[in-house]
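Support request from a user on the community tier.

User writes: "When I paste my structure tokens into the form, the page sometimes reloads and wipes my input. The last time it worked, I copied everything first. Here is what I submitted, just in case something in the input itself triggers the reload:"
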């Protein structure tokens, strides 16, 4: 009798374990990868603060039809939607109150559509990230299924326009540069010119000793460094520079002359802040101090 009870108890335990396994496995979806095979050349992100449009034009990504983007930043967004790893289905609902728990309701979700040559490839509704920021809740196309997906997709969708814009004001070919001319507002204009073969450097300008010999290495390093200017951030389209101009710069090339205006002011904490304008962009920008210091030189600084 005792043996029979033990056998029955063991059988019940086995059946219970099987039932538990079947129940659990029935509620966990296997990992699924959703992949877009076409190239993404346009992304529209409808966010609570407004619509953001990213479009590839030639070799550049353009933001809202006017700002040049940081290429790698936009490619990172495109890659996030080219290959989406779904870790499992959380629920199925179209109830806005339930969706609000995942920031997938109309007021909070980022609605993303990706395109190739004007044709929509897929649409997504991106909600909040998990506490580890390594997964996100999302929905796809017109489905009511809510998934947990791998990656920081939510971070990609919520970057500001300033974060996504290219920081490059201009990047010139060093070999095409003929001269760099600097005019402090309260001083005289001076110019460093590169000669022909052998990079024979000369200095000119009011009060400059034109017989002065320049150190080739020091002059070349400074001259080439003027080929690139980067902004630390961009001002708004109609925002005035809150500063006074301190320096005018002209960089002469065979086909054009690039201009750069530098401005300086004290902020509320008494710290010097710097801004600029350039012929290479219609937008004003903020600059790092070391960029401005590059033009606070004199020809004598390059003398042998």
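"...and here is what came back when it finally went through:"
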């Amino acid at each position: 009798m005792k043996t029979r009870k033990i056998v029955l108890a063991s059988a019940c335990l086995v059946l219970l374990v099987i039932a538990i396994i079947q129940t659990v496995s029935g509620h966990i979806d296997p990992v699924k990868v959703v992949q877009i095979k076409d190239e993404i050349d346009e992304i529209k992100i409808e966010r609570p603060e407004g619509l953001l449009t990213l479009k590839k034009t030639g070799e550049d990504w353009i933001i809202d039809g006017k700002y040049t983007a940081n290429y790698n930043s936009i490619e990172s967004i495109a890659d996030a939607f080219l290959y989406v790893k779904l870790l499992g289905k959380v629920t199925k609902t179209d109830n806005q109150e339930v969706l609000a728990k995942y920031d997938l309701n109309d007021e909070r979700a980022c609605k993303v559509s990706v395109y190739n040559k004007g044709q929509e490839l897929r649409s997504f509704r991106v909600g909040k990230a998990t506490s580890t920021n390594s997964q996100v809740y999302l929905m796809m196309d017109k489905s009511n299924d809510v998934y947990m997906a791998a990656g920081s997709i939510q971070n990609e969708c919520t970057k500001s326009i300033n974060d996504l814009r290219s920081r490059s004001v201009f990047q010139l070919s060093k070999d095409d540069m003929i001269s760099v001319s600097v005019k402090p507002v309260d001083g005289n204009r001076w110019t460093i010119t590169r000669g022909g073969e052998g990079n024979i450097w000369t200095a000119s300008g009011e009060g400059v000793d034109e017989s002065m010999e320049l150190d080739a290495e020091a002059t070349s390093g400074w001259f080439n460094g003027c080929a690139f200017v980067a902004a630390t951030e961009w001002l708004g389209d109609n925002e005035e520079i809150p500063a006074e101009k301190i320096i005018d710069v002209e960089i002469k090339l065979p086909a054009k002359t690039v201009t750069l205006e530098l401005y300086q002011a004290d902020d509320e904490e008494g710290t010097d802040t710097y801004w600029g304008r350039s012929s290479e962009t219609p937008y004003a920008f903020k600059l790092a101090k070391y960029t401005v210091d590059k033009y606070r030189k004199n020809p004598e600084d390059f003398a042998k």
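Agent notes: The reload is a front-end session timeout and is unrelated to the input. Confidence is low (pLDDT under 50) at residues 1-5, 14-28. The chain is about 20% helix and 40% strand. Escalated to web team.
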